[in-house]
Write a structure and sequence with these properties.
Protein name: Zinc finger CHCC-type domain-containing protein
Largest sheet: 3 strands, mixed
CATH class of the largest domain: Mainly Beta
Structural class: alpha+beta
Number of strands: 5
Shape: elongated
Organism: Triticum turgidum subsp. durum
Radius of gyration: 24 Å
Number of helices: 2
Pfam families: zf-CHCC
Length: 94
């Protein structure tokens, strides 16, 4: 009989936790005053680079960055780092 009570408590606890997580997710998704990480990255203008290759580390501090990605800048459109989303363009001197 005691094991049935424990199983009932377990299921009740799971239902409460699941409901809490759903409500928390709904609340977090409804907060439109904060910008998403993608919106913040898109606000950064493309970084101009001399030459055809850009090396992106994400941040000057190695603890906050990502593995170095070498990006080819042969196209006219900005090239995007696959780790952090920063955009790079070739700086053409006329």
């Amino acid at each position: 009989m005691r094991s049935i009570d424990c199983i009932g408590c377990f299921f009740l606890t799971c239902c409460v936790i699941t409901t809490y997580k759903k409500n928390l997710s709904f609340y977090l998704l409804q907060d439109t005053s904060k910008k998403s990480p993608m919106e913040l990255i898109n606000e950064v203008p493309p970084i101009k680079v001399e030459g055809r290759i850009a090396a992106c580390e994400g941040d000057k501090n190695p603890a906050l960055g990502h593995p170095i990605e070498y990006i080819c800048l042969d196209l006219d459109a900005p090239a995007v780092c696959k780790y952090c989303g920063l955009r790079y363009v070739q700086d053409h001197h006329h």
